[in-house]
Design a protein that fits this description.
Layout: H1 59-74, H2 78-91, H3 96-109, H4 112-125, H5 130-142, H6 146-159, H7 164-176, H8 180-193, H9 198-211, H10 214-227, H11 234-245
Helix pairs in contact: 1-2, 2-3, 3-4, 4-5, 5-6, 6-7, 7-8, 7-9, 8-9, 9-10, 10-11
Length: about 250
């Protein structure tokens, strides 16, 4: 049977000065009909974030370069964005938000190895940085590296237990491995945290269907359509429901 798991694999926004902690607001809901898809380009808040650079004499230069990077990203100039963050890092090698933001810019260009390397650096500088684990997990997942993806989503959950999208994403990876009970447990946790999380109901319904539990699959898929009546994949879900309810 074809799959239609919805992967909420949107990257978290780039670092913002208004966020004092590593527990960010969740990204906007993204639906990915069909098989899992690559993450869309993240929203960019356009304000600086992070600790002040360690060298007082370079504060103005670093701040100006960070702003230049933000402005370049807003203008769609990813190359200039990367170049400016690289200059920030050269002047302030422990400026983790510059690594974090550059990772997202690298991802936009499809330079996944560089993006992962920057998330590695963020985590080395701050092992409690939830968003870096979450985003790196997405990149691992999209490369088919399910075990590292599961580990990163698990670490994000450990650091931020209310992170419903990390549960959802880990559930998708477990389903891909055929670990349906673990997938169902993660999707169940996602909807426990966020009862309006339509895609988690759809994903759990798919896992129930893969497991052969038709009544639970039907209930979840019907709940999905109730929560997302205008879903782009409505016809596909309805077809699946017809198959489940048929003789």
């Amino acid at each position: 049977m074809s799959k239609f798991l919805a992967a909420l694999l949107a990257l978290f926004m780039l670092a913002s000065v208004s966020c004092a902690s590593n527990s960010p607001a969740y990204p906007g809901t993204q639906s990915y009909p069909g098989t899992q898809s690559a993450p869309v380009a993240p929203a960019y808040p356009g304000v600086q974030s992070g600790a002040a650079p360690p060298v007082a004499s370079t504060v103005v230069t670093v701040d100006a370069l960070f702003r230049r990077a933000e402005e370049a990203y807003q203008a769609g100039d990813v190359d200039q964005t990367i170049a400016s963050y690289t200059q920030v890092i050269a002047l302030s090698p422990k400026y983790l938000e510059a690594y974090y933001n550059r990772a997202i810019a690298y991802e936009d260009k499809g330079n996944i190895d560089q993006a992962i390397a920057d998330y590695d650096q963020v985590i080395a500088l701050d092992p409690q940085y939830t968003r870096a684990y979450y985003n790196r997990g997405i990149l691992f997942y999209n490369r088919g590296k399910l075990d590292p993806a599961i580990a990163d989503f698990g670490k994000a959950i450990e650091l931020t237990p209310s992170m419903s999208r990390a549960y959802n994403n880990r559930g998708i990876a477990y389903d891909d491995q055929g670990k349906f009970d673990q997938a169902i447990a993660d999707f169940s946790k996602a909807v426990e945290i966020d009862p309006g999380f339509a895609d988690a109901f759809r994903n759990r319904g798919q896992s129930y269907r893969d497991k052969g539990d038709k009544p639970e699959a039907i209930a979840d898929l019907e709940k999905y359509l109730e929560l997302a009546p205008n879903a782009a994949d409505r016809a596909q879900v309805e077809q699946s429901l017809n198959e489940l309810k048929g003789p």
